[in-house]
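Structure ticket #2291
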Amino acid sequence: QEQLVESGGGLVQAGGSLRLSCAGSGRTFRLFHMGWFRQAPGKEREFVAAISWSDGSTSYADSVKGRFTISRDNAKNTVYLQMNSLKPEDTAVYYCAADSNYRGTSQEGYDYWGQGTQVTVSS
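Resolution: structure written out below.
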């Protein structure tokens, strides 16, 4: 069982930066593929970024490529999402997700989810 807790959300002006953190509670956190998703008001939850536990490979949604960076520190049981050059359309609740087998872009593939953290970007 893996419990995830996100933090780091807040209000920022367009062009600014935020770093989200997702702390895992399990002893096998280092063996989980991790993903970030977001859900804006009135929209479906969408994939943002993912990182593999096995080789550290990463993937990103086209909308955030070049602006967001996913990373992990297994010693701290934490995965990060560094968000730069934020835009108003990045406003959403951001969720981290974990799975021991799946490392794709579909939310259905992830077994464990955090409660979410709100990111609001003002214009």
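Closing remark: The two ends are 40 Å apart (CA to CA).
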